[in-house]
């Protein structure tokens, strides 16, 4: 009778609450997995460029190319179905729950310390895992364990769960989204290399009228409409939808700059600003984040410099991108004033042609052929690349492949 009681009715209220948490975590993980696989990481209620968007578009949201939320569906789903017979499946439950809680602590660490961004959707899943862990080892296991046997028969599952957490962390660190230090010293994170790119791409000929077609002709533009880095006489072009406040965009920009320096004259970059602020982007819903408040100003300043001082746009680009974070709004405005030789006025920022160009960029970004509104978006003559969901080095390989770049060294 004692064994039957332990198997069928351990702490019924606690068990109900633990299963409720597991069910919630399963549904939330399923939603995040579907968002990652089919919607480019875009989720309801999350403004692009906000914490949730930054977290879900970061390389830390994947493990060896697989969305970690997909594994969450399997883990929390199994916990939900096994909990009613907690004593019978205690070893497997110990493994799954320790894996869930350990992963939760790891991903909370990634958000708070590494990314410095918080995804509320993700965090609710992680907190659910930690609560299930607490209930399991504090309430569900101790009572049956005392009734049945003094030894900790769930210990192997606990150790196996810790091993699983170690494999998760090790796999993510091995495929760390930050470039290796040796690469950083050679090119990828070198300010000297970025300056080489800037110096070699001063736009001395606007080449108005040259037609450029990207994504198999779906996106068409004319050189001179949007800022260009690189020679307008380049045989090939890459388009980038970006925002100055988007961290993934800044990383992509640095890697493209390295490639422009390594393959001089072989391609140029067309910049399509997509400010992640509802103040000038009607596609953004909800309040602006702290980071995106200056997004509209940055985009307008870029278009203003390109219109009035295209030969100095590379200097503006370097100023905006040379640090990991965008400069303060006042500093950016003051820098542009120095480039123009006069103060930047409200009339400059409300100019009809400037606003029309920004609207044109936003309309192109929402072209039907662009399936995911996930910055950055890179457009090639025949292909497209969304976001920075894996190692940034993939962008280097993708551009080489799409443009068939040939080394000149």
Task: Please characterize this protein's 3D structure.
- This protein is an alpha+beta fold and 409 residues long.
- The chain has two domains: 2-174, de novo design (two linked rop proteins); 181-403, Glutaredoxin, CATH 3.40.30.
- Helix content is 55%, strand content 8%.
- It contains 17 helices and nine strands.
- It has helices at 2-8, 12-38, 51-56, 68-82, 90-115, 120-140, 142-148, 155-174, 181-188, 191-199, 247-262, 295-308, 313-321, 329-340, 346-349, 352-365, 393-403, and strands at 62-63, 66-67, 211-214, 219-222, 228-229, 236-242, 267-273, 377-379, 384-386.
- The protein has a five-stranded mixed beta sheet with strand order 5-7-6-8-9, sandwiched between helices.
- β1 and β2 (66-67) form a beta hairpin.
- Residues 1-9, 145-151 and 177-206 have low confidence and may be disordered.
């Amino acid at each position: 009778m004692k064994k039957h009681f332990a198997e069928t009715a351990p702490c019924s209220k606690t068990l109900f609450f633990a299963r409720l948490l597991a069910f919630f975590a399963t549904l939330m993980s399923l939603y995040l997995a579907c968002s990652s696989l089919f919607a480019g990481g875009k989720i309801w209620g999350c403004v692009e460029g906000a914490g949730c968007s930054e977290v879900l578009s970061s390389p830390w949201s994947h493990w060896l190319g697989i969305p970690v939320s997909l594994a969450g569906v399997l883990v929390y789903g199994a916990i939900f179905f096994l909990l009613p017979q907690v004593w019978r499946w205690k070893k497997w439950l110990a493994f799954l729950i320790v894996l869930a809680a350990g992963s939760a602590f790891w991903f909370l660490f990634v958000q708070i310390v590494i990314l410095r961004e918080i995804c509320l959707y993700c965090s609710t899943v992680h907190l659910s895992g930690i609560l299930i862990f607490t209930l399991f080892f504090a309430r569900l296991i101790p009572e049956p364990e005392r009734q049945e046997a003094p030894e900790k028969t769930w210990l192997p599952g606990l150790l196996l769960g810790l091993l699983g957490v170690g494999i998760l962390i090790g796999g993510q660190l091995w495929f760390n989204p930050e470039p290796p230090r040796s690469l950083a010293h050679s090119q990828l994170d070198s300010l000297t290399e970025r300056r080489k790119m800037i110096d070699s791409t001063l736009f001395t000929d606007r080449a108005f009228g040259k037609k450029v077609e990207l994504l198999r002709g779906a996106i068409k533009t004319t050189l001179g409409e949007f800022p260009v880095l690189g020679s307008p006489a380049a045989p090939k072009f890459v388009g980038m939808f970006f925002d100055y406040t988007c961290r993934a965009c800044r990383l992509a920009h640095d890697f493209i700059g390295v490639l422009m320096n390594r393959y001089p004259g072989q391609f140029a970059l067309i910049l399509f600003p997509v400010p992640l602020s509802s103040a000038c982007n009607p596609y953004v819903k909800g309040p602006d984040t702290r980071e995106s408040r200056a997004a509209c100003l940055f985009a307008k300043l870029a278009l203003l410099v390109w219109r009035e001082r295209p030969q100095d746009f590379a200097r503006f680009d370097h100023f905006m991108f040379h640090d990991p974070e965008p400069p303060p709004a006042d500093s950016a405005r003051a820098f542009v004033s120095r480039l123009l030789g006069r103060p930047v006025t409200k009339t400059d920022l409300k100019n009809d042609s400037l606003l029309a160009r920004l609207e044109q960029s936003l309309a192109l970004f929402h072209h039907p052929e662009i399936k995911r509104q996930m910055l950055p978006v890179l457009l090639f003559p025949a292909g497209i690349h969304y976001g920075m969901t894996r190692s940034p080095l993939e962008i280097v390989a993708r551009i080489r492949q799409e443009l068939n770049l040939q080394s000149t060294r």
